[in-house]
From TrEMBL:
<dbReference type="InterPro" id="IPR015424">
    <property type="entry name" value="PyrdxlP-dep_Trfase"/>
</dbReference>
<comment type="similarity">
    <text>Belongs to the class-III pyridoxal-phosphate-dependent aminotransferase family.</text>
</comment>
<dbReference type="InterPro" id="IPR015421">
    <property type="entry name" value="PyrdxlP-dep_Trfase_major"/>
</dbReference>
<dbReference type="InterPro" id="IPR049704">
    <property type="entry name" value="Aminotrans_3_PPA_site"/>
</dbReference>
<dbReference type="InterPro" id="IPR005814">
    <property type="entry name" value="Aminotrans_3"/>
</dbReference>
<protein>
    <submittedName>
        <fullName>Aspartate aminotransferase family protein</fullName>
    </submittedName>
</protein>
<dbReference type="Pfam" id="PF00202">
    <property type="entry name" value="Aminotran_3"/>
</dbReference>
<dbReference type="InterPro" id="IPR015422">
    <property type="entry name" value="PyrdxlP-dep_Trfase_small"/>
</dbReference>
<dbReference type="GO" id="GO:0008483">
    <property type="term" value="F:transaminase activity"/>
</dbReference>
<dbReference type="GO" id="GO:0030170">
    <property type="term" value="F:pyridoxal phosphate binding"/>
</dbReference>
<keyword id="KW-0032">Aminotransferase</keyword>
<keyword id="KW-0808">Transferase</keyword>
<keyword id="KW-0663">Pyridoxal phosphate</keyword>
């Protein structure tokens, strides 16, 4: 871009193409270059770009009313979206508190958990446990819960010391064991941590059912979440599923936690909820958690000017209806199986690929300098950055994800295309990805 720019972009020393328009899985810049959106942006554009039905809904809603203040009015789109989400969510997670971003959704869950225990007469339960290699958002409360070493670093003095247990990261088991001989030590660690800190101080445990940005689609071993749920129940600790990335059909089920039939107390959703057509997220709360609040203070002490915004919730409702109409959850499962199969084939061909994982259309590829002992590349060699640039030059967008327990990032990417992707388009995606991996491997002399 030649003109002076005063827009603060993520990296101030980097050139960004100017997006012009999008159609389905493709984005086009203002020079006419085509990109396959292989990561749905930040795992967000689930129904693809440029869906005219959604544009029509936006226009019609704007003509009616775009904003009402939530303390003065409710609105039909907000009511209808809450009703629809109730049908999507597992069990008795029936209530929705609408916010604008995933960070606000997890932070609201934190506050609701603390408030719940206050209403129950247990005000000392204020700590939230979480895992290393997790990302729950950028605001200080959400960042406090995030086990993302890089993003925490500058603000550590301001953060609560919440992350405390190791992730269920079998490829690099934190306990140097293999499943099932490990007997789920990663889940058991939650119990020892609760006992050490004291259950009287702990309000909730939060986890991404499938770890996204800070692990690249890490799927826990069988039995993990069942054990987590049992431990939470035993010690009266709420279980919050952060499904901001993995929810709304992304992994081939409505919510990723459904893969294990485990019932969370609260679920945070965002991203795919509007497929990127409007900023919207929600803290979904179960009847059990709402009950003492309904009969107690009758007010959740949180909220924003744009909470439950009619324009955003109209979009959310239209996106969920679009997903139902086109059976995109099922499609995510089917196309995800195909994508994983193709990525596994690449792993056979390119020793630079150490691991391939994921569920549905949330998949991750981790790179290693030595496939046998899984040695990552030195942190100065930002492998994912080089690969992402190569992919982008060739017209494919993939998403950087860190991997490695000590916060050593940069060795993994997420591939998570819109759920509307066709088989031929998936082949086109893989072809470009393979070309980039091949070049990378030659350059790094693996
Ligand atoms: N939780 C998870 C699992 C996420 O992946 C993200 C964003 O990547 C967030 C929370 C934060 O969402 P947002 O960026 O919308 O604030």
């Amino acid at each position: 871009m030649n003109m002076a720019s005063y827009l603060i972009k993520p990296f101030l020393d980097q050139e960004y193409p100017i997006a012009d328009y999008g159609k389905g899985i493709y984005l086009y810049d203002n020079e006419g270059k085509e990109y396959i959106d292989g990561s749905s942006g930040a795992v967000t554009a689930s129904i693809g770009h440029g869906v005219l039905e959604i544009a029509d809904v936006m226009k019609e809603q704007a003509k009616k009313v775009s904003f009402v203040y939530r303390s003065q009015f409710t609105s039909e789109p907000a009511e209808k979206l809450a009703e629809k989400l109730k049908d999507w969510a597992p069990g008795d997670v029936n209530w929705s508190f609408f916010v604008n971003s995933g960070s606000e959704a997890t932070e609201t869950a934190l506050k609701v958990a603390i408030q719940y225990w206050q209403e129950k007469g247990k005000p000392s339960k204020i700590k939230i446990l979480s895992r290393w290699m997790s990302y729950h958002g950028i605001t200080l409360g959400a960042l406090s819960m995030s086990g993302h070493v890089g993003r925490r670093a500058r603000f550590t003095p301001l953060l609560e010391d919440f992350p405390s247990v190791n992730p269920p990261y079998c490829y690099r088991c934190p306990f140097h064991k293999t499943y099932p001989e490990c007997q789920l030590m990663c889940a058991e660690e939650l119990e020892t941590t609760i006992r050490r800190i004291g259950a009287d101080h702990i309000a909730a445990f939060i986890a991404e059912p499938i770890i996204g940005a800070s692990g690249a689609a890490i799927v826990p071993p069988e039995g993990y979440y069942q054990r987590i749920r049992d431990i939470c129940d035993k010690y009266e600790v709420l279980f919050i599923a952060d499904e901001v990335m993995s929810g709304i059909g992304r992994t081939g089920k409505a919510f990723a936690i459904n893969h294990w039939q485990v019932q969370p107390d609260m679920i945070a959703v965002g991203k795919g909820l509007t497929g990127g057509y409007a900023p919207l997220a929600a803290t979904m709360i179960s009847d059990r958690i709402m009950a003492p609040i309904e009969s107690g203070s009758k007010l959740i002490m949180s909220g924003h000017t744009y909470s439950a915004n009619p324009q955003s919730t109209a979009v959310g409702l239209a996106v969920l209806e679009y997903m139902e109409k086109h059976q995109l959850v099922k499609r995510s499962e089917k196309m995800g199986t195909l994508l994983l199969e193709k990525l596994h084939n690449l792993k056979q061909k390119y020793p630079i690929i150490g691991d391939v994982r994921g569920k549905g259309l949330l998949t991750g590829v981790e790179f290693v300098s030595n496939i046998f002992n899984k040695i990552p590349f030195a942190s100065e060699v930002s492998v994912s950055k080089i690969l992402i640039k190569k992919c982008m030059d060739k017209g494919l967008l993939v998403y950087p994800a860190s991997a490695g327990i000590e916060g050593h990032g940069g060795d993994a990417v997420l591939i998570a295309p819109p759920l509307v992707i066709e088989k031929e388009q998936l082949e086109q995606l893989i072809k470009i990805f393979e070309e980039a991996v091949k070049e990378l491997q030659i350059e790094l002399q693996v």
